[in-house]
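Internal tracking record. Fields below are filled automatically when a chain is submitted to the structure queue. Please do not edit lines marked as system-generated. If the sequence contains nonstandard residues, flag them in the REMARKS field before resubmitting.
Queue: standard
Priority: normal
Entity type: single polypeptide chain
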Amino acid sequence: MAPNSFWKGYLKLSLVTCPVAMKPAVTEASQIRFHRINRKTGNRIVRQYVDAVTGNPVKEEDEAKGYPRGEDDHVLLEDEEIEAVALDSTRTIDIAQFVPADRISWIWYDRPHFLMPDDPVGEEAFSVIRDAMRSTKTVGIARLVMYRRERAVMLRPRGRGIVLWTLRYGDEVRSADDYFGDAEEDQSEPDLLKLVARLIDKRITEWTPALVTDPVQHRLREMIEAKRKGRKRSGKAKEAEAPKEDNVINIMDALKRSIAAESRARK
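SYSTEM-GENERATED OUTPUT FOLLOWS
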């Protein structure tokens, strides 16, 4: 069952506007979560904000956001004041620019969301914007207040809808040159490339979500079920064996042995 919309507003391109709804495209609801428990009493442990000086608990209505301007000195801001800074982009996705779809590297992608029309009357306008981006192989760039901050977002056509990606801020993405700039640019030996290509070819498979399942979650569920039924199950993980130094061999020999092993496994 699809989750309820967590955002509703308008998609706008120049004078064309249509009501839209948005839902998160990913979820962590299936992950196992634990409560903190007092081992002596079996009761849950709760967290509580306390005053850093007096040590007294602070009521929720007394909490505020503060920007430090000196030691023990803050400028206080209310939630309403923060939200008022970017009211124009709170409920309207106004597409300001379009860029070629292949120009935005994946490293800028943050969170995906499904965007869909929220009114039968606006479906035509939504479809025209979506199909025009698809035919021109472009994505739309806009700004939107999400997760309590104004963010740049990218709109990419997908099927009958649009995927809205929040984009990372410019100061969040590090330059690859800072890490790979000193790497050697010499081309690999052709013979080695051919062997690796053969190894890759033997491992090519079709994409399926089963390739990214979480075995730890599966083992945790087994352990919890066993404990629930009163059975004992060891939760100790097997330690991976470290490669022995005397196993280091020539890379050409290693590739040949790998290909031979792959062939035997397939047979």
